[in-house]
Every structure is written in C-alpha cells, then in structure tokens.
Amino acid sequence: MAAESPSEGAARSSDALARLAEERVDHRFKGLPPDADGLTVGELTGRRRNLFTDGFATPVLSLSAERLEHNLRLMETYATRHALAFAPHGKTSMAPQLFQRQIERGAWGITLAVPHQVRVARAFGVQRVFLANELVDPAALRWISAELDADDHFRLVCYVDSVRGVELMDAALRGARRPLDVVVELAAGEGARTGVRTEAECAAVADAVAGTRTLRLVGVAGYEGEVPRADPERVRAWLRRLVALAVDFDKAGRFAHTDEIVVSAGGSAWFDAVADVFAEIPELSCPVLRLLRSGAYVSHDDGHYRKITPFNRVPEEGALEPAFRLWTQVVSRPSAEQAFLNAGKRDAAYDLDLPFAQVVRRDGTERPATGIEVTALSDQHAWLRTAPEADLEVGDWVGLGLSHPCTSFDKWQLIPVAEADGTVVEYIRTFF
Amino acid sequence: MAAESPSEGAARSSDALARLAEERVDHRFKGLPPDADGLTVGELTGRRRNLFTDGFATPVLSLSAERLEHNLRLMETYATRHALAFAPHGKTSMAPQLFQRQIERGAWGITLAVPHQVRVARAFGVQRVFLANELVDPAALRWISAELDADDHFRLVCYVDSVRGVELMDAALRGARRPLDVVVELAAGEGARTGVRTEAECAAVADAVAGTRTLRLVGVAGYEGEVPRADPERVRAWLRRLVALAVDFDKAGRFAHTDEIVVSAGGSAWFDAVADVFAEIPELSCPVLRLLRSGAYVSHDDGHYRKITPFNRVPEEGALEPAFRLWTQVVSRPSAEQAFLNAGKRDAAYDLDLPFAQVVRRDGTERPATGIEVTALSDQHAWLRTAPEADLEVGDWVGLGLSHPCTSFDKWQLIPVAEADGTVVEYIRTFF
After folding, report:
1. Which residues on chain A are in Cβ contact (under 8 Å) with B335?
2. How many beta-carbon pairs below 8 A join chains A and B?
3. Contacts of residue B141, Cβ cutoff 8 Å, sequence gap at least 6
C-alpha cells in the first residue's frame, strides 16, 4: 500500500478541519441561536455573534478564548522547560481543532484511551498517537494495523499488561507489514487500575512481546494518578519504580529493536513529580522520549482540577485558568429559598462535584452569584438554594463553573469560544 | 405565512427519517465496525451484521429489538386501556425514529423538556409537543412562535409557574399570529421542583395569562415524581389536588378560550396512580385530554426503573423488559480479585447505580457473570471485583445492564438494535 508523506498527512488534517467549518448549524447542536439554522459553522463564525445578546439559547456551554489560549501556552512552556515530550490526553476534549492547536504548539502527538478515539484522530490527520490503554479487540487491532501499513508516517504506541493480551494481539495482527509498538504498563500499586503489578511479571510480558513478530517493545508507561493514598512521596516512589523498570529492561537488551525508548506517565495531578523524576532518567542505550500525557489542562476547571493542579505546589511556574462557563437561565422561582435553572445532567459535569453558581446576568449587567448554591441536578434542571441576600429572578442568566473537563466536553458537540466581551470567535466541534 | 398541511408534515417527517439512513458511518459513531466506514447507515442495516461476530468494536451499546417492540406495545396498550392520551417523554431517547414509532402506536405527541429538543422534534416533523417545563428564553420563544405561525398543524403546550415568567413570555411573543398554549404547573409539594406552590398563586398566574393576547390557558399539569416522601397515598393526594385545580379553573371560566382541557402528569414511577386518579376526572365544560408523559419505558432498565416501575404493583397489566445491554471487553486482569473493562463514564449511566455485570461471552458462548461486580467507573474503564468462582479472562466480552435510560441513551449517537441472535436490524440515531 502507498505510504502517505508527512505533507499528505498535514493536508488530510487541514482538509478535514476545513470541512468542519462547512457543517450546517442545525438541530444537532444545542445552545446555538435558532435563527442561525442553515448557516455553515464558518459563516456563523464570521458573524462574530455575541453570546449574551445575539440569540444564543440557554443552556449553552462556552469556552473563554483568552483562557484556552493561556492554558495551551502554559503547558507548552512547562513541557519545554522540563524537557518533556508532550502528548496531551485527547479523550478530555475529543476536539480535533484543539488537537491541532496542541500539535502546532509542539506536542509530540495526542494520547487517547480507546480505538474509537483513534479513529477520530486519524480522520483529522493526527500522525502520532499514544494509546494509554490495553487493546485486545481484533477488529480494532486490524483497523489500526491497516492504518499503519497504509501510512509510514503514522505511529501508534499502546499498552500491554498481560501475556494473554499479547497473545490476543499477536493473533489479530498476523500478516501486518509493520509491527505495532507497545509499552509495558506498570500498575500504580496493589488494587490500582490496569497494569502489571510486579517487575517479574513485567519481564514475563516483555518476553511474550519479544516472542512475536507483530509487536515491538519500545518502552514502559503507567499512570501515577492511581497510586493508592497518593502523596508527593508515594507518587515519586512509584515514578522511580517506573524509571528503574526502563533501566532494567534496557540493560537486559529488551529495547534492541527500537531507536527511541518511551517512558511515559503524567495525568493532571502530578506532572511536577513526573518532571522531577523523569529529569533523573540516566543515559540509556538510545534516546529516551520522556512523554507527559496531561489532558485536563486545556479547559482546566472550577472544582476538582483547580484543587489538585500541580501549579498549586509550584506557583512560580504559572497557573491554569478555568475556561468553561455554562450559561443557564432561571425558569422557576417557586419560593424565597429555591430557584431552578434549565440545565441539568445532560449539560453539566456532576461526577466529581456539582456545578458552582458564579455570576448572575440581568439586563446586560453581570454580578457575583452571592447567596446562590447548586444543591442537585435533575436530567434537565439544576436545583438552586438561595440565601436571603440572593437577588435572583425568573429570566436571569446564571453562569456556572464546572468540575471535571472530561464529563463537561462530552455533553456538547459544538462549543462557542467567546472573548471576554462575549464575542464568539470560534466553535469547537467534539466527537464522543 | 403558509400553513403546512398534515400530509406535508408527515412528508417532512418521512423525508428527515429517510435522510438518517443516508448518513455515512464514520468516526462520529463509536462501537460500529471499523470496516463499515463509508457505508451509509441504510447500507449497513441491509448487511444484517451480527453484533458478536461481524466486527463491532467494544464498547458498544445495543438495544434488543424484541424488548423495544414489547415495551412500545405494552405502554400503548396501557394508555388505551386506561383511556389516557400519551405523550411519551422524548428527552429519554432523543431518537426521532423512536418518536415516530411512538406516534404510529397512537401517541398524541411527544413530551420534551427544553427548546433544543423541540428543534430536534420539529426537524423530524413531530406535530404535537408537550414542553413539560417553563420557557422564558426570548430567542427560543420567538423560534417556537415562528414555527406555530408557519404551520397551523403544529401544536405546542408549555408550562407557566410565575407571573414574571408570563410577563417575559408575553414580551417575547408580541406580534405572533397564534397564541402559545400554556398549562399552569402545580408543584408537587413544598421543596419540590418547579411549579406553583399554592392554589391561590396558581390563580394569580392564570390571571396573568388571561391578561395577555399571546398566551392561552389550556389546562394544568405537574410531575408527581417529585412528591416529597412519595408513596401511593401521597402521590394520589397530590394528583387529586391537580384534578381539583382543573375543576376549579373550569368552574371559574378560565378555560373559555380552549375547546379541550389538558390535565397532565405521569413519569415512569407512578402511572398507575395517574391512571386511577385521572379516571375520576368529572365532566368539565369541554373534553379533557388526560395526558400521560412516561418516557423511560421505551428502553426500561436493569436498575432504578426496574425497582420503581408501577408494573411491580400491577403485574396483571404486564411487565416492561430492560432493552439495553452495554457490551464491553476485559482489557486487563491484573490480579485474581480485579479486572478492567474498556467502558467507563463516557459509555454507561452512573448517576443512579453503577452498571451490573450480567453475562460473559467467550468463543461464542454466553454464560452468567457469576462472581463479577462493577465497583467503580473511570472515564474510560470499568473496575470489576471478581470472586474466586469468577471465570474471566482478558479478551472476554462482558454484557452490562444499566440503570437510568436518560443517562444511557445520551452517551451514544447511533445505537445498533439487535435481535436475540445478535443480528443487527436497525440503528437508532440520537440527538443530544
């Protein structure tokens, strides 16, 4: 099969992104102005409509243009400063426009979790994918193998954590032209998520890989976010185990068939520890790709990630800014203590925290949501408790902060990106 | 503006549904066979692929063709037997193909919760919408008003529960040719969700409606599912309050401008009580539309709704059947007590219960998931605890039962409908 050149890959990416601008605004996309129906997304972007005054219908999730840009820039700087390669986790946004901006800002590639997400990335020309998960599905493996065989510039690395998994992969991949690159996943501890629990078992899995012609061992990886009772010491101790595993494998000649050794870790809670420990990786038999995978930074949040971001420990390195705001409207105010918004579980993340009432807009004026608290979500309503000082009426817009980017992005298929004055300058398409 | 004839409406519906079959299978739709990429949905349907053997990729949510049909038929029979008009809540599935089947089976129309959902229904030609929510957004009201003015056969009824809400609606609707039909929402009790709390306030809201030319009062409604500390007596007591409100309004001449009085209640937990109490509605000044709105029955579930369905109290009237099964694959088995599936919060409902491990498939054989329990969900993984008797390996498929149809449908945009032997006979498109 013909191999695509890098410029062909770039062309595929740019074509597919351009086609996003040609999509019609219609019933598929909630929150958009009903009178924009039938325009293309590109035409609507050109109108530079205002989120607050130009007919957007609540509920509508918005991203801050300035904060999004700030976050993209900050993590690029962070990775560069710490000599880390960066494959931001794309499962967070599943937005090819954001993948593109991440890659333009120097990202090595995009991390993903399941084969469907790889299909999305490939449809938009992403050339390097780190699949931070085991993959044993024959249909998905055959599809990935066909993509690899058709495009020499496509690279995909995925996890292995069991001999049986290696056998299933090998059986599915027989006949492939290019081997599939794999890394052994080291579990974050007893009772933690996926991954091999002991170094001895890691060696057995690596032996199994070496016994195939369809797989090639290129490194080790894991997810420090699952370290039991995580604290800076325990996380660093586990990261050192991961590095030691790479060193041992290298000494044992297990990376003889690669010209680059991959060592990867790093969610959104401990990338400071990853930077520190990966800086200690000694010289190995070939160059090391120290690969960080944080994904939540792109929107950041007003809850969970605000609390756990490593920048709280290293404020001198910067600070992420929460970029989401969910705009909702008060539809009912049945008592002095209660009010109800027209947004619920269909619109807002609710798995880690409830949304936070941040601001109220009435007649073009925005003020803090004093005395207003979200106490529950129904499918299509938010329940508010209002203190005596709360000034809130039916018709008011309430801006909510959210907790957990991954379960915010996935409830919206086309997200307006607004500047501080409300001018919408872009629409981000997601694929979940 | 030209009014559409009913046959034009039907044509619009049938055209839009036909266009769904022309959509391309691509990266937008997870779980579908990667090698079906580029086929139309209609072509893929024609192939009658098998869910288990023809390349579907896990995770994949499936609906049982037989159970879906059973549930649709059962609620049609139930409504007919109890002389109830039926507007199944469409927010559950947001699937125009299911709306169509509900309407073909005699449904009066479709209930919806927010204007975006009305846009979806209108794009597929739904002619009667019961919007079971307050609506005060000017952009959305103007769009609905334009739809009403353009199509005399379109009918929409929505809630009002405050004088301020009525004022906002009136201001947005000035200049409309047809008035918007509204019902006063009676709250289910103190501290319950939206709705007017007292009969005196209901009268004040009705007065406000009567003072406009843009709104027309056609009835009363509410949601017994929010009755505090609900039990059969409390729910019936509240339903009798709702009926008494309709009777009082009628006596007071408040329904003088309608030729049909709407009385509506009924989620998926208490429709037996609704049937009983609505059977007691006395003769009023014009015919009464006793409108039931249950929506979850279409897929039913293996958790919350299985427990609370009224059919548990009236088994002689039938039983709903859980129609969803989420097929997942074991990707990791790091210890004798743990295993991990490739499906998580992105794929399964988790707001009321975790998924239930039901069956294991290996080499074409299906058996009960003995000793296997879902203990947590990550974004893209399910955590399983396995007892000593559990026979589970990497590569096995695990079929999960789900709890809460509303948060299951909304994670899938194209859902294969399979017969008992796995033959996929239809693909249901959702719009969230």
Report:
1. 190, 197
2. 201
3. B135, B169, B172, B173, B180
Same domain for A284 and A305, yes or no, is no
| CATH assignment at residue A280 | 3.20.20.10
Q: What domain count does chain B have? A: 2
Confirm whether B271 is domain-assigned: yes
**Is residue A104 a part of any domain in this protein?**
no
Helix axes A163-173, A199-210, angle to 10 degrees: 20
Identify the pLDDT of residue A6: 61
* Residue B380 shares a structural domain with residue B315: yes
Distance CA B115, CA B163 (A): 21
Domain that holds residue B164: 127-294
Same domain for B159 and B287?
yes
Mean pLDDT to the nearest integer, A255-275? 97
Is A187 in Cβ contact with B123 (below 8 Å)? no
Rounded to a whole number of angstroms, the distance from the CA of A46 to the nearest CA of chain B is 20
Asked if B343 and B284 sit in the same domain, the reply is no
Residues A154 and A280 in one domain: yes
| Residue in chain A nearest B30 by alpha carbon | A116
Nearest CA in chain A to B429: A28
Q: What are the CA-CA distances from residue A242 to residues A283, A293, A315, B333 (Å)?
A: 15, 15, 27, 20
pLDDT of residue A12: 72
* Mean pLDDT in residue range A28-46: 97
- pLDDT for B4 equals 59
Q: Do B228 and B305 belong to one domain?
A: no
CA distance A271 to A298: 14
Q: What does the pLDDT look like over A140-194, one tens digit per residue?
A: 999 999 999 999 999 999 999 999 999 999 999 999 999 999 999 999 999 999 9
Radius of gyration of chain B measured on its C-alpha atoms: 23
Percent of chain A with pLDDT over 70: 98
Kindly determine whether residue B331 and residue A187, on different chains, have CB atoms separated by under 8 Å. no
Chain B residue numbers with beta carbons less than 8 Å from the beta carbon of A133 are 331, 342, 380-381
Residues of A in contact with B340 (CB under 8 A): 134, 193-194
Taking CB atoms and an 8 Å cutoff, what residues of chain B touch A139?
33-35, 55-57
Tell me the average pLDDT across B247-259.
Answer: 97
Domain boundary among B261, B294, B327: B294
Percent of the residues in chain A that have a pLDDT greater than 90, as a whole number: 97
Residue B334 pLDDT > 90, yes or no?
yes
For residues B131 and B268, membership in a common domain is answered with yes
Is the model's pTM score more than 0.95? yes
- Provide, as residue numbers in chain A, all residues whose Cβ is less than 8 Å from the Cβ of B99: none
Nearest residue to B406 (alpha-carbon basis) of B320, B328, B303, B265: B303
Mean pLDDT for chain A overall:
96
Q: Give the pLDDT of residue B1.
A: 43
From the CB of residue A83, how many other CB atoms can be counted at a distance below 10 Å? 10
Measured in Å, how far apart are chain A's first and last C-alpha atoms? Answer: 30
Tell me the per-residue pLDDT of A292-307, one tens digit each, with 9 for 90 and over. Answer: 999 999 999 999 999 9
What pLDDT was estimated at residue A10?
Answer: 67
User: Is residue B41 in a domain?
Assistant: yes
Q: How far is A403 from chain B (nearest CA, A)?
A: 14
Inspect the interface and report whether the beta carbons of A123 and B193 lie closer than 8 Å. Answer: no
Residues B243 and B131 in one domain: yes
Assign residue B366 the CATH number of its domain.
2.40.37.20
Contact A195 B58 (CB under 8 A): no
- Cα gap B280→A429, rounded to integer Å: 51
Lowest mean pLDDT among B13-17, B55-59, B379-383: B13-17
Segment A312-363, tens digit of pLDDT:
999 999 999 999 999 999 999 999 999 999 999 999 999 999 999 999 999 9
**Residue B117, in any domain of the structure:** no
Q: Are A183 and A225 in contact (CB under 8 A)?
A: no
Domain boundary among B247, B268, B294: B294
H-run or E-run covering B98: helix B96-104
